[in-house]
Amino acid sequence: MIGYATGTDLTNKYGNVESIAFVDSTSILLSGDGIETKKRLLPRDDFEKSIDDQGFILRSAQHPHIELTEYQKLTVTSRLIYQSILKELVSEGYPATTKKTYDELIKRVESQHPATIATKHPQWKTVCRHWRVWVQSDFNDEALAGVKRNRPIRLNAATEAFIQHYIATVYSCNNSAFKGAYYSNYKREAQEASLKNNEIQIASQRTFYRRLQELTDAEKLANFKGLSQAEINKRLTTLRKRIKTYYAMQRVECDRVVLNMCLIDDKTGLPTPPISLYVAIDVYTRAPISVVLSFEPENSAGGLNLLRQIFMADSNLTMNGRKPTTLIMDNGPGFNNRLIKKAAERLELNIHYTPSNQPAKKPFIESFFNVLRDHFFSGMKIETQSGETSIGFQSYSGKRTNPNSLDTIPLAKRADIKVSDFTKLLNIFLTEYMHKHHKQAGHTPIKKWNQSIIDTPMPSFTYDQLQHCFHVSRAQASHKLQQRGTIRCLGQDYYSDELKQLYAATKTDMELGENPSVYVFHDDLDARKVTVQATLPGENNPVEIVADNIDHHDTKLPVSFAELNGNQTLTQLGIYTETFSHTPTGHYVGEITEFVKQKPKRKQHRGPKVASFNKNTKENLSIVERIKKSHKVNELKSQISHSGEQDTYADTIVSKTREMASTRYNDDEGNEKQW
Q1: Do 73 and 25 touch, CB atoms closer than 8 A?
Q2: Residues 494, 457 contacting (CB under 8 angstroms)
Q3: Any idea where the domains of the chain sit in the sequence?
Q4: What is the pLDDT of residues 299-317, one digit of tens each?
Q5: Using CB atoms within 10 A as the burial measure, which of 2, 25, 546, 609 is most buried?
Q6: What are the tens digits of pLDDT across the range 75-116?
Q7: CATH code assigned to 245-455
Q8: pTM for this prediction
């Protein structure tokens, strides 16, 4: 039979070469030098079945050279990415054409070539077909070229990655419908990017518009009104697949969620206002890199604190140190404000604001909020030291927009968890979340984060190094610099040797007895340092000097001005604080001391009015006289309570009081007095 003659070379499923040593109508003898080969005799039927199942692949003896077009060269390059890794898998013992092998192949391709995440992977059967062709050609790369075509060359991985990144960070965060403006801006940015990476090419206008339409269609599906939450989540999943990222902190989505829940203040024992959470999530790893608990309406302090917490961590939540490439925020007052923009400028961060009332523009943070509601507020197991157990927070009233979750009991009366216990439980939940397999993303956030740190090295920063970047607030127009190198800001004193030198340099042009005026920038929630800004004589550009709080510069964690000045009101709390250690268990379970049971306030019952202190004093009544007067009123109350009269309580009091007013009595000194 043709192809089965003695000496014919074949490649088995392990990638090893075998030759037909003998063949007849019933059996075939194979020989080879691989581990799985040596010499073996196979039934003819089994051998032919292996041929049909691609367990054996016939090898071609001739390798003719062909002239490849540019399109074919790019095709060979793209296909070799998959085939070379598939060859490695086969050498490790993976069967070449199984679905399990294909799934592992895609994982390794995306790990070794991150740019391919933006491209559409070839189908399973396609990879198998290319493998068969490659093996039959004795691994001749030209065999992967395909046919000659005159159509435009398809986008390579780097070009596709850039266009997808642009669409995800710019187009998806704006409402403008003028596609031409987006394409013009894209060409300029692609041109600049190509100077750093020559593999990045400028896509045609037609290709760019086609990519825009794909994302637009997905957004329309997600924003469609009247859908159930399950259908919305399904469509958001489709949208998330359209937004591609290639390393940790490339795209960070930020938002605020208001929760139907009050807590118990640890110091006062009273219910807090309804709480809210500011959250920042890294899209590539799905890691919540910053979480802030707030007791105030949305304001700039919340957004700025959220930005600060990105660079802070504890022993449980260690994702910090990297600057976000792009921050995706909405137009709310907590994010679209002067302080955030100034801090982002000092930190050299890019901000893209999404249009209002379009959550589909931030699909990843919206998905995380759903997880937070279901698995933390409604699903976490809470245990007390006394043995009480609760599934979810009983003080949580559910989503405000859900009429079925509304409760007639006020939120303040339902509060039963202390603020300290809540922050601890939330920290535990986030720690467990980081170590759980993410079904939609297909990975564990902490492993994805650690791998990205290795694959994509970037500069790392501590909060102490960047603390001065958050000095963006000014309490007043200017401050007076003192001769000893100190400055006072919001009730706190600050010192620096450089400030002392600054005083000497700026005092030369000042009148006697007048101190130089400087600008002082601070951070309301971190009073340990401030930044002093001044312009030296003869200079145009101002200098900036960081000064330390004289009394609190060595405090480990940030402390607010309000707290240092005696105001203990709860405002903002970062969840990433070094307060305790938690080892992941795989379960959302937390322990607290006890549930707080609020004491009901007793309704006050007022009896008959007695003479006030001021009235008794005006009448110059002695202590004995006041006691006798009080006893007379109590005797009156007793008579009323046991009387069988039908008068009302109030009428009786009035009549008896008038009767007493007309009577007289003698005091201890014998003087006649009137009630």
Answers
A1: no
A2: no
A3: 9-58, 70-144, 157-220, 245-455, 474-523+526-559, 613-674
A4: 998 999 999 999 988 888 8
A5: 546
A6: 888 888 898 999 888 888 888 888 889 989 988 888 888 777
A7: 3.30.420.10
A8: 0.64
